[in-house]
Design goal:
This protein is α+β, with helices and mostly antiparallel strands and 83 residues long. Helix content is 45%, strand content 27%. The protein has 4 helices and 3 strands; from the N terminus they run αββααβα.
Length: 83
């Protein structure tokens, strides 16, 4: 069974992350918040494509659904200080 921890590990291995959290406990549906410098200057679609590339075949074979929010470090800082 796929775990949130294994997905988090796969993403961290492929993308330099400032911060990441993956949640989900049914083995198929997950949500993630990912903060990375690589997202700088990229559209949301391009950011999500980077995450999908990091997960590779796992997205096609093991993970049924992954909802995600992606941020640059600056966007993340702004988001957490506004709460």
């Amino acid at each position: 069974m796929v775990t949130a921890e294994s997905i988090e590990h796969s993403i961290k291995t492929a993308l330099p992350c400032t911060w990441i959290r993956v949640e989900g406990d049914d083995g198929h549906h997950f949500s993630a918040v990912i903060v990375s410098e690589l997202f700088q200057g990229k559209s949301i679609i391009k950011q999500h494509q980077l995450v999908y590339q990091a997960l590779g075949e796992r997205m096609r074979e093991e993970i049924h659904a992954l909802s995600m929010k992606t941020y640059t470090p600056e966007q993340w800082d702004a988001a957490i200080t506004s709460n």
